[in-house]
Amino acid sequence: MGDMKYILRFLGIVLMVEGVLMLSCLVPALHFDDGTAGSIALSGAFTVTVGLWLRVTFGKARVLRARRMAYLLVVLMWVVLALFGMLPFLTTGTLTGVEDALFESMSGITSTGATVFSAVEWLPASVLFWRSMTQWFGGFGIVLLVLAVVPSLGINKYSLYTAEASGADNTGKQSATMGATVRQTLGVYVLLTGVFVWLLYKSGMQVWDAVNITFTNISSGGFSIYNNSLERLTHGQQYIVAAAMLLSGVNFAMLYNLLTFRWDRLRHKVEQLRFYLLVAVVCSLFVVVSLVVKMGYGVGDALRCGVVQTVSVLTTTGSLVADTSGWWVPVTFLYVVLSMCGGMAGSTTGGLKAMRVLILVRHVSKTLRDRLHPRAVSPVRLNGTPVRPELATNVMVCFMVFVMVCFVGIMLLMVCGINATESIGAVVACMTGYGPGLGTSGGFGCYAHFTLSAKLVCSLLMLMGRLECLTVVILFTPAFFKMKIEK
Amino acid sequence: MHSRIHTFQLFNPWLWRVVGALMLYLAGALLVAVGVSLYYGDGMQFALLFSAAVVLMAGLFLRNMVGWRRRKAAGVGGEGLFDFQLSLSGIEGVESYWLTVCVWTVLPVVGALPYLFTGVSTSVTDAVFESVSGFTTTGSTTFARPECLPVSMLVYRAMTQWVGGLGLLLLAVALLRRVGMGAGSLYEAEFSGTQQRRLHPRLARSVRRMWMAYGLMTVLMAVVLWVQGVGVVDAVCTACSTVSTGGFMTHGVGSELAAGSSGVMATLTLFMLLSGMNVAVLYRVLTLRWRGLWREGELRMYVLLYVLAVAVCTAALVVAGNGWEESVRYGVFHIAATMSTCGFYTPAPQRWPVVVGVLTFALLVTGAMSGSTGGGMKLRRVMIIMKYIANYFTRMLHPNVVFRVKVNGQVVENDYINKVFAFVFLYIVFIVAGGFVLTLCGCSIPDAVCLAAANVSNLGPSPLINELGGSLDYALLPDVAKWVLALLMIAGRVELFALVAVLSPSYYRKLRIKN
Hints:
The complex is a heterodimer of chains A (487) and B (515). Chain A has 22 helices and two strands. Chain A has helices at 2-24, 26-32, 37-57, 67-85, 87-91, 98-109, 125-140, 142-149, 157-164, 178-202, 207-218, 235-248, 252-259, 270-295, 299-314, 329-341, 354-372, 389-415, 420-432, 452-466, 470-473, 478-481; strands at residues 381-382, 385-386. In chain A, a hairpin with a 2-residue loop joins β1 (381-382) and β2. Chain A is globular and about 70 Å long. Chain B is an all-alpha fold. Chain B is 63% helix and 1% strand. Chain B has helices at 13-40, 45-64, 68-74, 95-110, 113-117, 124-135, 151-166, 168-175, 182-190, 203-227, 232-243, 251-258, 262-275, 279-286, 297-319, 324-339, 354-366, 379-397, 414-440, 445-456, 465-468, 479-493, 497-503; strands at 406-407, 410-411. In chain B, strands 1-2 form a two-stranded antiparallel ribbon. In chain B, a hairpin with a 2-residue loop joins β1 (406-407) and β2 (410-411). In chain B, α1 (13-40) packs antiparallel against α2, α8 (168-175) packs antiparallel against α9 (182-190) and α15 (297-319) packs antiparallel against α16. Chain B starts with 12 loop residues before the first helix and ends in a 12-residue tail after the last helix. At the A-B interface, α4, α16, α17, α18 and α19 of A face α17, α18, α19, α20 and α23 of B.
């Protein structure tokens, strides 16, 4: 049971961090005097207390022995975060249903951006800030955050890290120690946040708005403090937000190397970056052209809406520059596929990630090549070096499980009484972390009309999508409960 | 070694020779239709005769004229005009990809001529769509009312399915004598590397046995239907469409089904299930060699999946408030039609649970057994992937364990597993890409995806048909959509790789060696 104690201790630390962040919502609560200070203080204090209690009670556990427990730990962490994240919604009375609160909280923690609020402008400032805050720290990955704050955790940290970034290789790892990697990455994240808050402020926005918008977009989350998301912003501000989203889809280690002039290291990931940007450009072009031809936009508007929205989809942010629910069907379909693609591995975006897509495509072309030239040895290459065969199959499995989970999710939602189009939209939006679905839940709409069961299914899908399926699915396999392997 | 393998030759004489020879057989089929037309007096004889003549001329031209000089130089060109001896030895290795694609595009397109000449289809698009749907045994049709078709065309339509069922390439192997070295790769191409066991060490004999089993089952089914009181033409046509897992419905059988005739329904269900089986397995079933049959993993999966799916479907229908009898009847028939990718359609019960639609989608994508006449991804591949993923999860927990995927007790090589993964990925890409183009033509997203999946899996009717209240009528789609769907059908029938290979630049490039 030593491992269980370790997990509880770890959860304690995580909860303490979450509680402190919750207490930071007191600042807007008091500043805007929206009358929620008491509730927020209560939620934060409760969370911190529970965390502290766990941390103190199970303080002796130092080592995580069983590998399976690492998976359990990661999943539990996100579940507990989401559960406690419900408190501000419930105590302030902005949401009364537990399923609504869970949906909203999970959507925040997983930086999805799907919301049950049909309008958000009436919400108290503290709750708005809590939504932005959950996305900001959820987007970066609370695992990394905790590892940075508590560098002396004393376990096999590496196994934790691989549990979260299952399927991909260790894209973030570039320093000898894990702690250094995390600190560098966190540094870049904070720096980017600061820069974009400043840019938005300079472009004529209030600090409050700038902070919230930056928090939700740099984390590729997508919550907004306005009913109509980015539509209200000036054109220049929209382009600034687009830049933030685009950067949030770039591998953070790469950004760090870029900023610290270690350009020789960039080539390890340059193909992924090229692919990511290429997809962004090509899809933007298609969208811009169809907006002009099919929807009657002016060229300037089409360029702005097309580019900003496509970047928002590709990085699975989900900020909306216009009400996309009425857009031409092929564009909508393209967006569904595009959000599955996602940004680069090691960024805040969801979806499959550019690296996996690249490997998938190259694996198929390798298979063809093998058939045409049976005797040639031609491995899948990435950035000029052969990819380990295990990594390729790894990616394949990840993709298959992703597709299967999507399919099962669509089936469940349809059983819950959601129509086909909306089920597809909601499942893809939740799995990839995009946010807005199709139909009523798409565009400026919301998920309020979903039934209780549908909301629970969506919450689970968001969790699965954020942890890249395998980590969650493995908890439901018989292998997880078997201690010994059959011969 | 021949250097030809890496170079592209559109006018490879050997290739066009096979295509031409198959066209001669198509002309023969048309002559049969002429006979039917004369017997029933539906007035189509001249149109059909004319099409037969055109096909015959074209076939003779392709068979004998294209590249005859080169053939002569190679010393194999001495055959006479009506000499059916033909060598396939000029087609080696990867050229079978081109052959596959040529056969599966040229013949359906030429086979569209009778639809045009007889005037049953009004546009080239409709005619080609119908013909491709026939040859690829998809069963998507632009004729919502088959009773309006002349008898001869019904028979012709069913014949295209019958021939397409076991595969045009296997037809070539079976009919063309003196099949040489190339035949092996044709056989491989038809089953696109699902590693089928042969029924006989000699390939040609093995293939002939397959056709025998196939023909026997067709005759059997036609007789059973006829005994049950179905008209001769209806019985024969339906037998051809069922055994090939095509799914073109005739009016007679359709109305029997609609009227709820249990006998006809049971016959169709049974034969659909049989035709979704591997032909080699079927041969063993028909020749009463049942020992060890159950050890065939894929067969077991097929049967168990069927039973499970019927149970789910029936339960869902009963829960939705339909009667027991109706639910069971519908479930048994509908799941058989889907899993074999036959795609026969009966009107659904009044209360329609969406689960059945989703279940249908899943089953049509996974498809029938490998080496069968059915379509889809094939259960063998699904089985391999499932086993691999299950192993993968164990390996995530125990990284040092060595696991192998086994099918029928034999280890599956990693290379092969990777190919299967690539295939499934391509399959999904085809469905998504096809769906995207269909949305350009004005379909809604679920509709587009379902149509694409139903046609790339060679099923026919869309699984969402009941929910959307749509009809089986593909005639309403815009022309572009029909061409896309026809392409998807061909892609699905040749199991993607051949089509993707000839479309990919690396087919025409010499291999670059990187250091």
